Amino acid sequence: MEKAESSGDIILTHPLLKSDQKRPLKSKYAVASAIIASMASLLLGYNIGVMSGAQIFIKDDLKMTDTEIEILTGIMNVYSLAGSLTAGWTSDRFGRRKTLTLTAVIYFVGPVIICFSHNYFWLMVGRFVTGIGIGYSVIVTVYISEISPVSMRGLLTGVAELAVNIGILLAYISNFMLADLSVHLSWRLMFALGTVPAVLLGFGTFAMPESPRWLVMKGQLGKAQEVLVHLSGSLEDAKTQLEEIKESAGIPKDDTAEVVPVPKQSHDKSVWKELIMKPTPSVCRILITVLAIQFFQQASGIDTVVLYSPRVFEKAGMRSNSDLLGATMAVGLIKTILIPVSMILSDRVGRRSLLVISTAGMAASLVILGLGLQIVDGFVTNQTWMAVVCIMAVLAYVSFFSVGIGPLAMTYSSEIMPLKLRSQGVALGMAMNRTVCGVVTMTFISLYEAITIAGSFYLYAGIAGMATVFVYFCLPETKGRSLEEIEELFRKREKETECDGKSLQVAV
Q1: pLDDT category, 267, cuts 50, 70, 90?
Q2: Residues in Cβ contact with 286 at an 8 Å cutoff, skipping those fewer than 6 apart
Q3: Are 386 and 399 a contacting pair, CB within 8 Å?
Q4: Buried-exposed string 484-499: b where 16+ CB fall within 10 A, e elsewhere
């Protein structure tokens, strides 16, 4: 790598480019920062997935009922609401990076409380603290989308979802590897291992830059440009991006000082006014889109597979704990290794196309799973071949989830939200996501007891089908556009709607 000097500024160039085609080489700084931030997503996945196997041993050790296990498993998603709704305010006030540091602390404290729990009450306290951390993880995608170059944003925001699935897979592996220990010790060690990534994240945040878009919102233009230079490798690109961000943040172009004044009014009140109380048609459409895509991601039943795979496979005919946990580990492995496919294709094929394929495939897989479980339930003798069909249907379902709506729900949500509303808007989406997830996970056992396990998956299949229709007709493509261009895209649609309305009035 060479250094080319221009007007006293250093611009990185790649030596393999021809002299007349030299362009700035994108810094690896953004990639490294995205990976560190994604540790919070890994912790989200681990703390959700670890309950899949740990619940077997917690139930035996503390003599808990199915209802208590059902609540303990899903309640963390309800607790996360407090974190997700607070995270937006914290990140807007103190910065994205400091919010991630706080997230690491919370993720460390929660599992420690669980490890030393000897009754249901303290387990719930530990799950509550961990749930706050899950809510705070919403800031990961916001942060990554704000530091990513346009051409890499789909790839880098996909790192967060990949980290979630790596966390789930690691949780499954810990379930499997520690299953032979004593009942009293095994589940405690499963949760204790979750503190290691929290420590790594806590120290890693000190090496990360603050979001340049947050710095602009705070009037710190000099620091924002410095960060943009590091992220893009080009002073010229950094200045161009800075001008776009300034315009989006409402800062006049002629304000070129390193620090400029920002409005004194309460940012928090202004955000909620623009987002909820008096949104423009474009903001209203964006918010509905974010809430809907987050709803469909969870309401289609993904966490019933993540958290209750052993029960599903048991219903399909499997019996031994080692076989159940081994099959569950295979689900986590497939779910993880297919995330990079979405990361690569989202910037080539496009978000919308992948979302259509994903939701349609999920619906079909769930129908097959439901049919398989219904057939197994009708036989008195064990039907091994149908158990294999059910397992393959589950693997197909998580595969379609992982190449589309799994990683792209948060990517798309963070992309389309305007800069000033991004933290709080994405936090609302995360609140919807965790609420639906909590309802699904806390009602799954009761639901399949009421309408059969096959009926439950038919229901989820119907929701996935509705998601396909919604994505096809309602979501515009965001591939290849900067965050500011996407914001302008929705504004143009608003103007087009207004023009159509005026034309209609004239015609009448």
Answers
A1: low
A2: 416, 417, 418, 425, 490
A3: no
A4: bebbbbbeeebeeeee
Residue 263 burial (10 A CB sphere; 0-12, 13-18, 19+) = exposed
CB atoms inside a 10 Å sphere around CB 194:
26
8 Å CB contact between 33 and 157: no
Give the whole-angstrom CA distance, residue 362 versus residue 242: 41
Question: What's the 3-state SS for 185-250?
Answer: HHHHHHHHCCHHHHHHHHHHHHHCCCCHHHHHHCCCHHHHHHHHHHHHCCHHHHHHHHHHHHHHHC
- In which band, very low, low, confident or very high, does the pLDDT at 364 lie, cut at 50, 70 and 90? very high
Q: Return the structure tokens found at 248.
A: 């989006």
- pTM strictly above 0.85: no
For residue 21, with 0-12 CB atoms within 10 Å meaning exposed, 13-18 middle and 19 or more buried, which class applies?
exposed
Pull the structure tokens for residue 177: 């590897």
Report the candidate in 269, 224, 229, 230 with the shortest Cα–Cα distance to residue 246: 224
Q: Is the pLDDT of residue 11 over 70?
A: no
Mean pLDDT for 446-450 is 88
Structure tokens at 447: 């639901």
From CA 223, how far away is CA 228, in angstroms rounded?
9
Long-range contacts of 61-64 (CB under 8 A, 24+ apart): 61/183, 61/184, 61/187, 62/118, 62/119, 62/120, 62/123, 64/120
Q: How far apart are CA 329 and CA 172, in angstroms?
A: 5
Tokens of 56: 């077997």
Residue 46 parent element (H or E) = helix 39-62
The pLDDT value given to residue 27: 64
Alpha carbon separation from 81 to 138, 258, 411, 430 (Å, rounded): 11, 37, 20, 8
263 has a pLDDT exceeding 70: no
